[in-house]
Amino acid sequence: MAGPPIYATTPQRIWYYGFRVLCGLIFFFLIAPILIIIPLSFNAQNFFTFTPEMLRLDPDGYSLKHYRDFFTNPDWQQALWNSVRIAPAATLLAVTLGTLAAIGLSQPHVPYRRAIMAILISPMIVPLIISAAGMYFFYSRIGLQGTYLGVVLAHAALGIPFVIITVTATLVGFDRSLTRAAASLGADPVTTFFKVQMPLILPGVISGGLFAFITSFDEVVVVIFVGSANQQTLPWQMFTGLREQISPTILAVATILVAISILLLMTVELLRRRSERLRGMSPG
Amino acid sequence: MTDAAADAPIPKPDAGDRARPERQEPLVAADGRPLKKSLQRSLRRQKLRAFGLVAPLLLFVLVTFIAPIADMLFRSVENQIVSETLPNTTAALVGWDASGEDLPDDAAFAALSYDLAAAVEQRAHTRLGSRLNYETTGISSAFRRSGRGIDDVGEIYLDQFVALDPVWEDSGFWARMIGAEGWAHPAPFAPSAQAQGLLPETAAAYTAFARAMQIRNDDDPAAEEPWAPVYLALQRDLSAADAGDVSAWTGPGAEQLEAAHAAVGGFESVPVRDLIADVDDAWLEHDVWATIKTFSPPYTPGYFLTSVDLKLSPEGAIVAQDDYQRIHVLLFQRTLFMSLVIMGCTILLGYPIAYLISNMPMRTANLLLILVLLPFWTSLLVRTSAWKVLLQQQGVINDTLVWIGLVADDARLTMINNQFGTIVAMTHILLPFMILPLYSVMKTIPPSYVRAAKSLGATNWTAFWRVYFPQSVPGIGAGCILVFILSIGYYITPELVGGTTGTFISNRIAFHISSSLNWGLAAALGTILLVVVLVLYWLYDRIVGIDNVSLG
Questions:
Q1: CATH of segment(s) A65-281
Q2: What's the whole-number mean pLDDT along residues B388-417?
Q3: How many Å apart are CA B43 and CA B37, to the nearest integer?
Q4: DSSP state letters, B38-66
Q5: CB distance B46–A108 less than 8 Å?
């Protein structure tokens, strides 16, 4: 930051710095709540606030007991296992179907494109509580309520809009003469897809998949209604924990989740840049 | 068109007959077809292929998502439980005027005993009771209490028929007499046309009995003694029939029927009304019958009326809901009000940030953007638990305030489980959704305009307010609609930090699904919310365009 221009008058200087301080405070409001749980999760006591020992930076004030609890408590382990079982399956389903459909939608002549797009995007628009209510009613009619399959299908439906949006965005810059070139050299459509198209749109597919994954991994409203106790996921367990017996283990879990989201965010950023670079290189 | 032509199948070397002279006017493709047709065919094939790629997902979303939404819409008006559980009663009530003073006629009372006996056997009467209790409080106890005595209604006639001829106790005899010819157990019981003609109520009552036996335990009705209400029906039918019709009976049991018809006039009898009133005297209340009549159609506006704190009175008029049940309009208002406040807060906090980022050099801007994206990517539960930790009475903020000395230790602020908690937490959660659209609009505003305004003598404020701000309005619009749509449907955060005064309509929907089990009302509330969201979304599409939705 260069500071205000040298010709600035005093009020302008005050404004310049005042504005920056204001923005700093807003950034503090954005970030601090997330960061504050990290030290709190190492609390040696079962409190949700900084103990005097922690403020004195006394090592006795810190401990890993909440992490130990997370890794040994069967409830949390079951929840973790359920999350790990549900999210990848839902992601795989959403990415496979979503990528195919995005490729279909990006063809020059698709009948009823707008209507189809509206239907496919709708899970993102409809409030989760409404999706959850509808799915609860309908899935209990057809016997999917309270099953693993039901939760996976529901989460896949919620993740699909993200896959469609990211992959369609990548395909906008896709040079269609490449597939024609492949075809003219004798490749069949399947080979063309896997050897030519897929590698180029892969960044979009992966970041769509990450969005679908995080949607399922963080989702709590739909799983509460569509799932049963056997499908209790990590966010669900956190939700019950926050509502009933609030235990500091939640903060340990939250810290782990923050670490995961930072990883995912970095991956998506890298992919986006790579995709832009690739697009910049390809003609058209 | 060029695309289509280029995508046409590559002709194999031997496919076209190139040697043939091509001088006639219709242009011909390499394989000898007219070019126009060939293009059309290729276009059609292309459409089909595109559609084939989209179809699996479309089908998937239709089944896993659109069908549930349609189911919810259907449930918000569906009301088949009354006519399904009490088919004979609702039929008997057709001619009755619910707005009058009189109770329905004996036929309706008798029909109630047939239907209710079957409903009790299938444990359906309490469900119907709770359904009707949503409309008129107190009905559910009438149904529950009736569950114990209803199959004794008509016992007085049962005894007299059996005393007349023990064959009336014979379950097989009943099944042969009423059942259609050729009926045998696993098939659903059906009465014969003759029985329906001469003994309409008996046929209906016995059918209700037989079906209940078959559905509940898979029992053969021909091996079960009918319950007492069937005898009540027989007594009513025989008293109403004339001798000629009875002697014309050709089915099984002709003799017994004729004998019974001759004797039934001399039976000791009690008015049906009294028999039913003995079971539960709520059945002498006009409102109970009027409610059944008003809610007997298979579809009802009742749930939607309840959603806006109105109701159908037993007489079928639309009236205001009872005071203590008036909550939904308040919740809708609160949801809208708090969403507006949250929207306002996100503008106030988001605008400076978006302005700052869009006026930074690329490198710094990217860094700051990551600070905005980090909360966006962090689990909702993590952010909500963070606020729960911060805002508690023994939480970090209160501790800090006490430590500074701003707040006395015994007067810690209540910042959670109220509207304040919900607004703060949701502003934090939804802030990125305001900043990102604002930023993407501000990035495109050329700085030269503001410079030009200043060079023409505008003060900083005028340059901003008259030149810069109007150009950023589309971003504000997009961000506002996005934040508003997201916040009116929020469930998790209000549930965890909202207490009783900071909850939204979605919390009420969840309550009706999982606690009060009034699914129809939950569906109606959901439908209203859905309509609001779709209208807003339509506006968003008109203003911003759905194709401009971008993620991070």
A1: 1.10.3720.10
A2: 85
A3: 10
A4: HHHHHHHHHHHHHHHHHHHHHHHHIIIII
A5: yes
Q: End-to-end distance of chain B based on CA atoms, in angstroms?
A: 35
Q: Residue B356: which residues within 8 A CB-CB, separation 6 or more?
A: A19, A20, A23, B368
* Tokens 């840049």 belong to residue: A273
- How far is the CA of B212 from the CAs of B81, B122, B220, B221, in angstroms? 16, 6, 10, 9
Which of B330, B510, B371, B499 is CA-nearest to residue B423? Answer: B499
User: CA nearest B237: which of B279, B274, B194, B276?
Assistant: B194
Structure tokens at B501: 């005064």
pLDDT 10s digits, B462-501 = 999 999 999 998 889 888 988 998 899 899 999 988 888 8
Dist. CA B249–CA A260, nearest whole Å:
82
Residue B124 three-state SS: coil
d(CA B120, CA B122): 5
Domain segments of chain B: what residues?
A: 2-75, 82-326, 328-548
Q: Which residues of B touch A37 (CB under 8 A)?
A: 382, 385-386, 389
- What part of A 216-275 touches B (C-beta under 8 Å)? 217-218, 220-221, 225, 235, 238-239, 242-243, 246, 250-251, 254, 257-258, 261-262, 264-265, 268-269, 272
Return the DSSP state at B522: H
Name chain A contacts of B7, Cβ cutoff 8 Å: 180
Smallest Cα distance from B547 to chain A, Å: 8
Task: State whether A120 and B64 contact (CB < 8 Å).
Answer: no
> What CATH architecture does domain B328-548 belong to?
Orthogonal Bundle (1.10)
Tens digits of residue pLDDT in B183-207 = 877 788 888 888 888 888 888 888 8
Could you tell me which residues come within 8 angstroms of residue B131 by beta carbon, excluding any fewer than 6 positions away? Answer: B81, B82, B295, B520
Residue A174 to residue B192: CA distance in whole angstroms: 72
How many other C-beta atoms can be found within 10 angstroms of the C-beta atom of residue A186? Answer: 8
- DSSP letter at B12 equals P
Collapse the DSSP code of A267 into the 3-class scheme (helix H, G, I; strand E, B; otherwise coil) and give the result.
helix
Residues B351 and B138: their CA atoms lie apart, in Å, by: 55
Which residues 242-281 of chain B have a CB within 8 Å of chain A? none
Contact state of B383 with A34 under an 8 Å Cβ cutoff = yes
Cβ of A120 under 8 Å from any chain B Cβ?
yes
The reply to whether B7 touches chain A by the CB within 8 Å rule is yes
CA distance A244 to chain B (A): 10
The CA–CA distances, whole Å, from A179 to A160, B12, B178, B473 equal 25, 18, 74, 42
Give Dmax over CA atoms of chain B in angstroms. 114
Query: How far apart are alpha carbons B352 and A29 in whole angstroms?
Result: 13
* Helix B35-61 × helix A148-172 angle, to 10°: 140
Q: Residue B277: what pLDDT?
A: 84
Exposed e or buried b for every residue in A13-23, given b needs 16+ CB within 10 A?
Answer: eeeeeeeeeeb
Closest-CA distance, A157 to chain B, in angstroms, reads 6
Specify whether the CB–CB gap between A206 and A215 falls below 8 A.
no
- A37/B385 CB distance under 8 A: yes
User: How close, in Å, is residue A46 to chain B by CA atoms?
Assistant: 12
Contacts of A235 in chain B (CB under 8 A): 379-381
ipTM of the complex: 0.87
Place of tokens 């996976």: A152
pLDDT of residue B334: 93
Contact residues, chain B, for A172 at CB < 8 Å: none
Q: Is A212 exposed, middle or buried (0-12, 13-18, 19+ CB in 10 A)?
A: buried
**Which residues of chain B have a CB within 8 Å of the CB of A264?**
377
Q: pLDDT class for A132, splitting at 50, 70, 90?
A: very high
